[in-house]
Amino acid sequence: MTRADFWCRVLGWLQVASGVATGALIWLLWNILFSWIDIEDGGFFAFLMWIIIAIFVLPVFLSGLFTILFANAVEQARNGLREQGKILLRLLMALSGLWAAGFIGFAGLSFPVLGLFGILSLLTVGLAIMGPDWTADLFASQEPAS
Predict the structure, then answer these.
(1) What is the pLDDT of residue 1?
(2) Is the pTM of this model over 0.70?
């Protein structure tokens, strides 16, 4: 279980799951706190709730999604398909990881996440910098020279 593509998938799915869990928690708290208020025009407040969810969830979700797609490139590199730089995927992965960690914002929207989610996002940025070939060789088995 030391294959790099496996750990990339684990990292990506952890980020996707944390994004979904964060969105569900915001939705649940919104409904608990504001369900007792009788508002005539609830459409605006429902739209506001989804905007807040998008601000918190979208960066982490995209970072995880791009990491899962990067795992496929790492698996291809491990199977022998080398020199495929995947520059666009790596760029999107690094930018979404930096956005999720709170280092950059998109249209002024950024929420610096501290703790585990920030560390996962920075690991995604590190993988994007390394590239699929180097990441595939990271956990490769070392065969003794004969």
Answers:
(1) 36
(2) yes
User: Quick count: other Cβ atoms within 10 Å of Cβ 11?
Assistant: 21
CB-based burial label for 6 (10 Å; 0-12, 13-18, 19+): middle
Please say whether the beta carbons of 60 and 19 come within 8 A. Answer: yes
8 A C-beta contact, residue 74 and residue 131 = no
> Computed from CA positions of residues 127, 132, 134, 136, in that sequence, does the dihedral angle turn out positive or negative?
positive
Distance CA 127, CA 70 (A): 9
Q: What are phi and psi of 106, to 5 degrees?
A: -120, 115
Contact yes or no for 102/49 (Cβ under 8 A): no
Q: How far apart are CA 70 and CA 114, in angstroms?
A: 24
| CA distance linking residue 72 with residue 26, whole number of Å | 31
